[in-house]
Design brief:
single chain, mainly beta, eight-stranded antiparallel barrel
Amino acid sequence: MKYSTLAAIIVGISATVGSVSHQVQADGATLINLDCKLKEGANLTAVLDGPNQQLTIDKSVFQFVKVNPEGQGEALIFQKANSQEQVIASLNISAMPIRLAVVDGEQANQYICTHTEA
């Protein structure tokens, strides 16, 4: 059930961002590269991997948990995999630009992201 929800959302993302829509395979699987920046200038890179239900942020793997409704659409919620840390990533793909929030305990960083096909 989780996979079909994420796969449907990935197909929707691909259609929304346009430039990667031709990369969507018959099973709805695709990869989307994200280049993200903080307002203060710090950068990070991420890869949204629909087939594996993962978001990789600067070599840290986050596993898909759920879809969370937000005021401006839906956010994909991921939790850092294989870690004792409670690090959460929230990816809002409902509007452009794509927004990524990474919450590590008390600290939350909000990024604005551009995308490219993988």
